[in-house]
């Protein structure tokens, strides 16, 4: 089972997907797409430890994605 959450942050669209692992915990994937169409699309997975609930996995995905966006923009001087 999977569930998706879409969010926008600092010029990127974040698509976060929660998925249940084999131990009944929740992992996530996320995809970052620049809203202006410039730059690369980034896709990541997180499967270490897992979250207790589907909602927690989606929230964790958004937070990790936002941190990545902040890091990318910092490196670009923005």
How do you describe this structure in short?
By secondary structure, the chain is an alpha+beta fold. Helices cover 28% and strands 46% of the residues.
**N-to-C order of helices and strands:** EEEEH
Number of strands: 4
Report the span from N to C terminus. Answer: 37 Å
Query: What's the total helix number?
Result: 1
| Sequence of strands across the biggest β-sheet | 1-2-3-4
Assembly type of the chains comes to single chain
Biggest β-sheet, characterized?
4 strands, antiparallel
* Radius of gyration over all CA atoms, rounded: 13 Å
Question: What structural class should be given to the helix and strand makeup?
Answer: alpha+beta
Overall residue-averaged pLDDT value = 89
Which of globular, elongated, flat, extended, rod-shaped describes the shape?
elongated
- Residue stretches low in confidence (pLDDT < 50, at least 5 long) are none
Strand content: over 45%
Topology, pairings included?
Blueprint: E1 2-9, E2 12-20, E3 26-34, E4 42-51, H1 54-75
Antiparallel strand pairs: 1-2, 2-3, 3-4
Report on the structure:
By secondary structure, the chain is of the alpha+beta class. 28% of the residues lie in helices and 46% in strands. The chain has one helix at 54-75; strands at 2-9, 12-20, 26-34, 42-51. The protein has a 4-stranded antiparallel sheet, covered by helices on one side.
């Amino acid at each position: 089972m999977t569930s998706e959450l879409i969010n926008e942050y600092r010029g990127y669209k974040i698509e976060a997907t929660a998925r249940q692992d084999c131990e009944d915990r929740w992992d996530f994937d996320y995809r970052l797409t620049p809203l202006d169409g410039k730059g690369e699309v980034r896709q990541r997975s997180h499967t270490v430890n897992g979250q207790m609930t589907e909602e927690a996995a989606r929230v964790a995905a958004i937070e990790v994605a936002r941190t990545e966006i902040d890091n990318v923009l910092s490196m670009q001087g923005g």
